[in-house]
Amino acid sequence: MTGVIYARYSSDNQKEESIDGQLRECKSYAERNGIKIINSYIDRALSAKTDNRPQFQKMIHDSSRKLFDIILVWKLDRFARNRYDSAHYKNVLNKNSVKVVSVTETISRGAEGILLESMLEGMAEYYSAELSEKITRGLTENALKCKFNGGTKTIGYLINSEQMYEIDPQAAPIVLEAFKLYVSGKTMKEVTEIVNEMGLRTARGHKLNLSATQRMLQNRKYLGEYRYSNHVTECGIPQIIPTDLFERVQKTLEKNKKAPASHKATDDYLLTTKLFCGDCGSIMVGEIGRGRNNQQYRYYKCISAKRKKGCKSRKGIKKDVLENLVLTHIIKTIMDDDTVEAIIDIAMKEQAKENVALPALKKQLSDVKRGIENMLNAIQNGIYNSSTKERLDKLEKSKEELEILIAKEQLHKPLVPRECIRYWLYELRKLNIDSLEARKCLVNTFLNSVVVYKDKIELVFNYREGTETVPFDRLISVSDTYIDTPPENKNSN
Fold first, then answer.
1. Contact between residue 459 and residue 470 where contact means Cβ atoms under 8 Å apart
2. Measured between alpha carbons, how far is 455 from 464 in angstroms, rounded to an integer?
3. Which sequence spans correspond to the domains of the chain?
4. How far is CA 106 from each of CA 76, 174, 245, 370, 440, rounded to the nearest angstrom?
5. How far is Cα 149 from Cα 131, in angstroms, rounded to an integer?
6. Which residue in 10, 157, 242, 491 has its CB near the most CB atoms, within 10 A?
7. Do residues 249 and 179 lie in contact, with contact meaning Cβ atoms separated by under 8 Å?
8. Greatest C-alpha distance within the chain
9. Distances (CA, A) of 286 to 151, 267, 441, 477
10. The CATH number of 2-105 is which of 3.40.190.10, 3.40.50.1390, 3.40.50.300, 3.60.21.10?
11. Residue 370 burial (CB < 10 Å; 0-12/13-18/19+)?
12. Contact, 256 vs 189, CB < 8 A?
């Protein structure tokens, strides 16, 4: 597992941990849990109350490059200014398969706050998907005409004023040369170095790396195929690579591909970063193994036991068994009307607690309006002079300023209405539980953490304090839960 560290120090609060202290604790956590740190993003003397944090924004941008799997922070309040922003940025990171972990708040930092943040994130995703359906209709119309639909431009092509694809006379010959070089026996590294020397660049003007080169060699657009969603049009755009050459390259790529066991486990381990070993407290990671009949199986295993760093837990727990057990208890939650209403109550109270500025501003506005009313009553009673007018003008100005501040605050921290939350929770009942996205939504919204012991698990939910203990023998036999760790380590996620 590859990770980065985000640290922030605000000069207006001298009681906060220093940058060095934050880095030290994050690095210690990473070492204990087998996380390889490749970079640190540090904002010094900047408050989380602003988004103008250059290193933070760079980290969010870099997450799209798939260079790391996890972001470590000293505390979650280092990450964002409020739960609304946290939900927004976590949603962005989630789309890039990156998760945020607090190294000092492993289990819980307050169930109610986590629930609100998770719900905001989940609702944002839900309504985003709803909006996406409307947008998709317009994009589909473009696709039928083989027009450019946005996103990163493909190397070797230009987009004209009518949003149609045209061959780039400078880049296309180099792309063709890359295919010829690879099929001639050059390695991916050698091809990358050669095309970079020839001046080939990405759409953003950067040199190609190994991943970019591989994606280029696998891109069927060079055959003239136009693809959008499930829509494919043959000869929809100009062809750059001859069909026979493209097919030979694909066969070479397949031949040079590493054995399945060396590949990283796919990103469908729902409990990653939420699962902990009951024996030593370390995180548990997803593994892929193969049995005697070359049958693939998936499981979770303690990272410390995996690296032989003190944990005596030698067995892995079956992925499907554990995840289905967890999901069974989550579904039980959302199918109970009383529990749903209790969750809504928690979310509404937490929202009010989160927005501390708004009540104060509204009270000030109420006082100002009362002052204006008193001044108008005085004028009606015949009390009017230069002092009265000056006082009334000041109050009117204050009223205008407060109304602007309240509008900005409401825009920045919108209150999610009770009915919207209820509607969303009821919609969750309709999710197809076989869908990976649906399972992710349920786990990320309601589940805080899971601690695995030899004969039981402890569930920590976001909607209530305390733990729920589930013995394995209540639903399944222990023998069907655990598997022996394979003699050779497989891949973790």
1. yes
2. 24
3. 2-105, 109-134+262-355+420-493, 145-257, 356-412
4. 10, 50, 52, 49, 20
5. 17
6. 157
7. yes
8. 99
9. 32, 9, 19, 21
10. 3.40.50.1390
11. exposed
12. no
Q: Which residue in 423, 434, 435, 460 sits closest to 115, CA to CA?
A: 460
Pairing of strands 491-492, 456-461: unpaired
* 291 three-class SS: coil
pTM of the entire structure? 0.49
Residue found under tokens 């003007």:
205
The single-letter DSSP state of residue 200 is -
Do residues 287 and 301 touch, judged by C-beta distance below 8 A? Answer: yes
Running DSSP on this structure, what letter comes out for residue 11?
Answer: T
Neighbours of 225 (CB within 10 A): 16
CA distance 180 to 246: 9
> Domain 145-257 is in which class?
alpha beta
Q: Which residue has the tokens 């006379």?
A: 169
What is the spatial distance between Cα 319 and Cα 337, in angstroms, rounded to a whole number?
30
Residue 471's beta-bridge partner residues? 456
- 3-class secondary structure, 117: helix
- Do 37 and 24 touch, CB atoms closer than 8 A? no
pLDDT at 262: 35
Nearest to 482 by CA among 321, 324, 325, 318: 318
Which residues, listed in sequence order, are joined to residue 456 by a DSSP beta bridge?
471
Q: Which residues pair with 483 in a beta bridge?
A: 316
Are the C-beta atoms of 289 and 482 separated by less than 8 Å?
A: no
- Kindly tell me the burial class for residue 456, based on how many C-beta atoms sit within 10 Å of its own C-beta (0-12, 13-18, 19 or more): middle
Q: Which two tokens stand for residue 84?
A: 């609304």
